[in-house]
């Protein structure tokens, strides 16, 4: 039997909390990957560890029997790591978390960049929204984060990794569809949907305030909070909405809102800045990880197109997809 130590940590978190969401919060990840890892552990040990009922989680007899052995195993692993770090002078792994509301392709690319770091070993997680990543940075649970801007906490510093120009999606027979570009003034008499930011309440509020400050007051959310892109497209078609988007025609989202039914039009207006994704950290951490600054420089060099640089154009398309993925 080849047991993964991370799965043992996940098992103990659920055993302690008897609640998958609380356990996921404690582990700084989201519930779906936690549930998947528990199922993989159950497959490895040959039986179910938890009885799962609606709003009720309890340990099975097998789960109860394995709790203490799991604690002992992880205690020995921690002792092993502590002795090794003390003898070699190495710090522990750099803890890096990313917003779970970026598209999976973009998260995979960022995780790849983290795995490439030469300056330090790393541990990667998906705590949740940008606000949740920021909270973990401030609490010292994370050393670095990958977030959508704006970030809700003023203690967070950042360096922008990607920018994505703004645009609108409209029906192909809409008067704005024939424009080479639009300005914010062109939208003042229209019903404008802001679902692009619905995954992040702070970003949604910020976008709404920004539009209202520029004279756009008829602001709506087209789809339900968990509505798909297909539902969103149906609402734009039926209600003749103007949908705020990232202008990325080659993204999967851009292709959905393409002719013959829809048209993407870029926003060219000095008052409308591009959407941004950033590498973030807490300015006030009392004891920052010794390799944090070196990791920041190394990650930025990867995204800036160093010898192993990432494909920024492809990643920018992923930003556009991720902003409406959830």
Structure description:
This protein is α/β, with parallel strands linked by helices and 326 residues long. It folds into 3 domains: 5-88, Arc Repressor Mutant, subunit A, CATH 1.10.10; 94-162 and 275-322, D-Maltodextrin-Binding Protein, domain 2 (3-Layer(aba) Sandwich); 166-266, Periplasmic binding protein-like II (D-Maltodextrin-Binding Protein, domain 2), CATH 3.40.190.10. 42% of the residues lie in helices and 19% in strands. The chain contains 11 helices and 12 strands. It has helices spanning 5-17, 20-27, 31-45, 61-88, 104-115, 130-139, 201-213, 229-239, 252-256, 292-303, 312-322; strands at 50-53, 56-59, 94-99, 122-128, 144-148, 156-164, 166-171, 192-193, 219-220, 242-246, 262-266, 275-282. A 5-stranded mixed sheet has the order 4-3-5-12-6, sandwiched between helices. α5 links the parallel β3 and β4 (122-128). α1 (5-17) packs across α2 (20-27) and α1 packs across α3 (31-45). The protein is globular and about 70 Å long. 37% of the residues are buried. Mean pLDDT is 83; it is low at 306-326.
- Mean pLDDT metric: 83
CATH-assigned homologous superfamily of the largest domain:
Periplasmic binding protein-like II
Number of strands: 12
CATH architecture of the largest domain: 3-Layer(aba) Sandwich
> What structural class should be given to the helix and strand makeup?
alpha/beta
How far apart are the first and last residues' alpha carbons, in Å? 37 Å
Which class of the largest domain in CATH terms? Answer: Alpha Beta
Number of helices: 11
Strand order of the largest sheet: 4-3-5-12-6
